[in-house]
């Protein structure tokens, strides 16, 4: 994920005078502060909180079976910059990751473990005669290694269409909360892995499965065994709760169980759902190449460690280690004193005295693993996550925070929070809503908030009865895709304004490109190149910046008031470049008065003409510009005209299946629909076509 560079490479220095010894004159010492992407070697592993937050083992791990170094120092990397270490089935960086969906055979034992049911197929390889065993693609399996809430997922393809593709899918998610655990003399967790000829593979293997016997004979098998707390008997400490479902309600599962008890014949998928719902023991078997098996063992060690830590201490166990005296639900939990987990940190402010690095503090870090489908294993963990997200925002530089007197954020209808966070309203007045352009510090919740997703999800979009005057063709997309068709456009929007007439006159040459007079225009900058901004991790696109400069100056010289134009970009580097280009213009052009805003700054502002520079030019690495919240802001800031600069040609190839497919992810649906809509309405103009007729 791209990260804005809030400080550039600016280091501030000042002098201190330290009293000398005896009659020696005072020694002049220079103290400097610098923001860096790589922590100096002498400060690595030297955090003040290291003994508290980064122990080798948990105190109750008496036999030292679950090394926490697998989490906070995986592979000798204390500062990997992301939550889950990357485990691959080989040493090559192009080797497949272990944590992917795999076809699986599951063996489900009933509550008394007296009977077992077998479903699925353990491999993507099968023979025609295997089809007699049922749906060979019924079950898929994946391990999710989030450090604070790890889980094991099963996907059951419940129904298929005539083309064989799934039309109804159900997910079973087993978090560490559900596993049997022991913290006495023999610490244990109800999760075991094995590969090839390990004893854990052979023990309990269903004897009637020819496929398993063949894989075992080839030493190409991976086994996962789960022991779960009984449905009616939960632990009194640590994380608790049964596995959760998505795609089916508890009432529907109860109905299936009732039908099964009455002797009704259920489909294979429904029988698997009923068996999983009450089981206390599940074994999962899947194929892994014999030569890849050894690469699985570090992965198994990591997963068992985070399962043990979560099950025995509870979710968000890092924050329990960091403040052992306060419960997570305590009103006195010291959020402001708790540093983010070091493995998330990407940038530090380093203090040097006389050139020697003596201290460092995090200034930017990535988020912890999220739960994208919004189905959480427990409410207490959810409540803490929301409190953490709010606290991180409240802890930022208050000079760029504004008190929110009401829940309504702006006229576009952005309200402050869901009812679930009403208890935190006393802190909401400290949320960062934007920064001054002159400020050196600029850190968003994405760059310094490990609970950023839950925090942003708590800021919901609700329709208001009358939207500020957006042109109907600009308002159409957010009305359909974001506001569920409930936005009412003010009647005044249908009246051609003087500015619209002026801009349409200035854009008259575009008619030669096939422009249909739409006020929403996508400028395809596929042929330009995005690069890193200086020595930072932010990005710039010189081609987009040059277009913005020419267009803004052209509009202003043509009679458009500079205050009616706003430029928005999610990248700090691009904003700095565009702002500098505008400031270098002659004062008589008025270009210096045009606003250049980040997305957070733009939330509370609008203009008649909005220019959005998306910068990203690599279709394989689109980054965070797809986020629905950001898009909602970007496409609703311009009331009369909206120009969106982006790599539309390359993104279109992605949608056509001619490249990798990050745009097919569910989380990017809004971005995908925006691109498809621009092409469908013939609202995309290439940069070359624009330049040919406008210059």
From TrEMBL:
Domain DNA2/NAM7 helicase-like C-terminal: 465-647
Pfam family, one: AAA_12
Alphabetical list of CDD domains matching this protein: SF1_C_Upf1 (cd18808)
InterPro entries listed in its UniProt record: DNA2/NAM7-like (IPR045055), DNA2/NAM7-like_C (IPR041679), P-loop_NTPase (IPR027417), SF1_C_Upf1 (IPR047187)
Protein name as catalogued: AAA domain-containing protein
């Amino acid at each position: 994920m791209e990260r804005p560079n809030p400080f550039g490479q600016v280091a501030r220095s000042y002098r201190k005078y330290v009293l000398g010894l005896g009659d020696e004159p005072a020694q002049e010492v220079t103290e400097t502060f610098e923001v860096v992407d790589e922590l100096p070697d002498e400060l690595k592993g030297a955090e003040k909180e290291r003994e508290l937050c980064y122990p080798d083992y948990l105190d109750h791990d008496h036999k030292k079976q679950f090394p926490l170094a697998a989490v906070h120092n995986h592979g000798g990397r204390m500062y990997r910059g992301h939550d889950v270490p990357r485990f691959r089935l080989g040493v090559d960086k192009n080797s497949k990751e272990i944590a992917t969906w795999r076809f699986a055979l599951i063996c489900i034992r009933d509550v008394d473990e007296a009977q077992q049911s077998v479903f699925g197929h353990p491999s993507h390889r099968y023979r025609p005669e295997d089809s007699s065993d049922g749906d060979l693609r019924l079950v898929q399996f994946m391990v999710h290694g989030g450090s604070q809430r790890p889980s094991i997922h099963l996907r059951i393809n419940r129904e298929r269409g005539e083309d064989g593709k799934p039309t109804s899918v159900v997910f079973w998610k087993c978090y560490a909360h559900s596993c049997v655990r022991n913290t006495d003399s023999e610490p244990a967790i109800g999760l075991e892995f094995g590969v090839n000829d390990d004893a854990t593979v052979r023990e309990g293997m269903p004897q009637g499965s020819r496929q398993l016997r063949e894989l075992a004979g080839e030493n190409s098998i991976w086994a996962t065994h789960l022991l779960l707390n009984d449905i009616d008997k939960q632990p009194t400490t640590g994380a608790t709760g049964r596995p959760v479902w998505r795609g089916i309600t508890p009432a529907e599962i109860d109905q299936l169980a009732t039908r099964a008890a009455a002797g009704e014949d259920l489909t294979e998928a429904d029988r698997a759902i009923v068996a999983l719902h009450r089981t206390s023991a599940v074994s999962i078997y899947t194929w892994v190449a014999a030569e890849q098996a050894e690469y699985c063992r570090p992965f198994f060690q990591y997963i068992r460690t985070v399962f043990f830590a979560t099950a025995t201490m509870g979710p968000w166990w890092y924050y329990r280690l960091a403040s052992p005296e306060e419960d997570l639900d305590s009103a006195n939990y010291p959020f402001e004193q708790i540093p983010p987990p070091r493995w998330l940190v990407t940038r530090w402010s380093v203090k040097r005295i006389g050139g020697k690095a003596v201290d460092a503090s995090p200034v930017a870090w990535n988020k912890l693993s999220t739960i994208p489908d919004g189905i959480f294993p427990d409410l207490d963990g959810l409540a803490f996550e929301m409190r953490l997200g709010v606290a991180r925002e409240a802890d930022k530089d208050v000079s760029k925070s504004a008190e929110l007197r009401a829940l309504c954020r702006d006229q576009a209808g952005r309200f402050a929070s869901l009812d679930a966070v009403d208890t935190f309203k006393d802190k909401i007045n400290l949320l960062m809503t934007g920064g001054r352009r002159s400020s050196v510090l600029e850190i968003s919740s994405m760059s310094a908030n490990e609970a950023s997703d839950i925090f942003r999800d708590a800021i919901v979009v609700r329709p208001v009865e009358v939207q500020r005057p957006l042109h109907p063709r600009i308002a159409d997309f957010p009305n359909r895709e974001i506001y569920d068709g409930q936005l009412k456009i003010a009647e005044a929007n249908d009246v051609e304004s003087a500015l619209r007439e002026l801009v349409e006159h200035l854009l008259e040459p575009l008619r030669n490109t096939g422009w249909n007079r739409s006020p929403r225009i996508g400028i395809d900058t596929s042929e330009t190149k995005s690069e890193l901004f200086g020595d930072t991790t932010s990005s710039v696109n010189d081609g987009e910046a040059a277009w913005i400069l020419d267009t803004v100056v052209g509009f202003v010289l043509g009679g458009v008031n500079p205050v009616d134009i706003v430029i928005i970009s999610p990248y700090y580097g691009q904003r700095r470049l565009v702002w500098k280009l505008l400031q270098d213009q002659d004062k008589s052009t008025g270009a210096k008065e045009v606003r250049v805003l980040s997305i957070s700054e733009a939330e509370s502002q609008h203009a008649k003409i909005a220019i959005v520079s998306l910068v990203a030019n690599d279709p394989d690495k689109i980054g965070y510009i797809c986020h629905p919240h950001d898009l909602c802001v970007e496409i609703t800031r311009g009331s009369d005209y909206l120009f969106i600069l982006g790599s539309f040609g390359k993104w279109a190839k992605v949608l056509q299946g001619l490249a990798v497919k990050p745009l097919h992810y569910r989380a990017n649906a809004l971005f995908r629909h925006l691109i498809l809509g621009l092409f469908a309405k013939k609202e995309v103009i290439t940069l070359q076509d624009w330049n040919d007729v406008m210059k």
